[in-house]
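Obj.: predict assembly geometry.
Materials: sequence records (below).
Method: joint structure prediction, all chains together.
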Amino acid sequence: MSALGDLQASFRDAILGGDAGAVARLIVPDGLSPEARLQIYRHHVLDTLTALLESTFPVVRRLVDARFFAYAADTYVRQHPPCGPCLAEYGVTFSTFLSDFPPCRAHAYLPDIARLEWAIHTARHADEARPLDAARLSSMPAETLPRLVFRLDPSVSFLASPWPIDRIWRANQDDARGDDAVELDGGGAHLEIRTRHGEVVLRALTASRLAFRRALGEGATLEHAAQIALAMDQGFDLTLEIHDLLREELPIDVTIAGP
Amino acid sequence: MISEGVAGTGIGLRAPHVQDILAARPPLPWLEVHAENYMADGPGLAALEKIRRDYPISLHGVGLSLGTAGVLDGRHLARLRALVERIEPCLVSEHLSWSIAGETYLNHLLPVPYTDESLTVFADHIREAQDGLGRSLLIENPSSYLRFRHSSIPEAEFIAELVRRTGCGLLCDVNNIFVTASNLNLDPVRYIDQLPRDAVREIHLAGHRRNEVDGHTILIDDHGSRVADAVWCLYAHALHRVGPRPTLIEWDTDLPSLPVLLEEARTASGICAAASRNEAYVRAG
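Observations (raw structure tokens):
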């Protein structure tokens, strides 16, 4: 590595809480110590990224309280700093971090709340897309139906959790009534998260509908997605599911997979 | 002086003001946005495109990290190029700083030692970025909070040499010059006088705050307040030196209402008009 590259690697380490000695020796004191000068940069980086995580995960923050969240966020930033300059993309691994973070072990539902908040965040920033024209679908020959591959609304994602994360999330919104106690053993959630008319919408699905839609979103053919859902639930009604998929304007494009 | 078709004082467009601007269409000659805010935000980009129909837009990048040793982030350059093609900006700018080391992006404009090595790194990356974007870049002078022992080239001279080597333009941030000069004991007027005047194609103005650290006053470039009186004076000197230039009021934190930004823009326009009248008077005299 070049001398400049070495300096930048050391500077990065110093900002993220590592040893600042090597970089400090390269800085002119001039009335204020090198450590104090480095702290100006460190403070801005850690402060801004912690504030960013607070705004992306407000329910997690509310559940653990502000001081603990600041500690968790600070630890996360130092261990997992951004890997790119689009900060809207920062925080995707925060839920995994919470799973492994020892002080959070007592709150086993927290990582799934973080996953839900990340899904809401990405839904908010997703591209808007026009729904698939129904006429285009009806023009597909009947024999091609099993091989249809749909592209879904870019804002949609699916989340299954053993915890009642949708009820916990709603109870922690600013407009919640405040008297909603959520029973943690009150059952799990199968959620669809997407943006409709500029608002993020959470909907509870059946497990088989979630599996069907998730498979379609991952590029499975209609036949393959239906098989996955039927294996979970023999009562899975494909005609109804296709009808609802289209009525809810989830698909934005359709192609036919090769035989 | 018109740069790429814009003149006069614009403001930085920030998310809380987008709807106000779409509704009221205030009389501003141009607006500037942070490029990275529009690379992963579908609805935000759609709103920007609506605004673009009525206002020239300048793209101000913070993520290219032109001062990072090693290869330039090709993926990020491609994303910036895609945004440039979509928005057709009047100006595109970046910074004399670095943010990327290895796999890490640090969200700050970090200081570079001014050496022959960093001069080469910047020149190579600026050329690559200009080739990749198909247009010239304006490079903004930084706010500095430290000086490296092994810096061998004064900052203004370093910038002038980059202009010579790459043909890039300059975004003269007058507040940054004031902050750097105060923090590192430089003469801000002399700094402005050393910049190659014809390369300056945009001026930034912003607020800063004073911090007391260990009994030492340090200015922090926080873009969180009105432009300081001393910075208005330095702006007048910059105009005297380089002539009228498209000027931007930059306010990023503790955002005020839109009318406050418009007021700051009017103050800048007034100083620019007075500077032009003075030049005409001097020439006539």
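Conclusions so far: Residues 207 and 226 of chain B are 5 Å apart (CA to CA).
To do: check interface contacts against the pulldown list.
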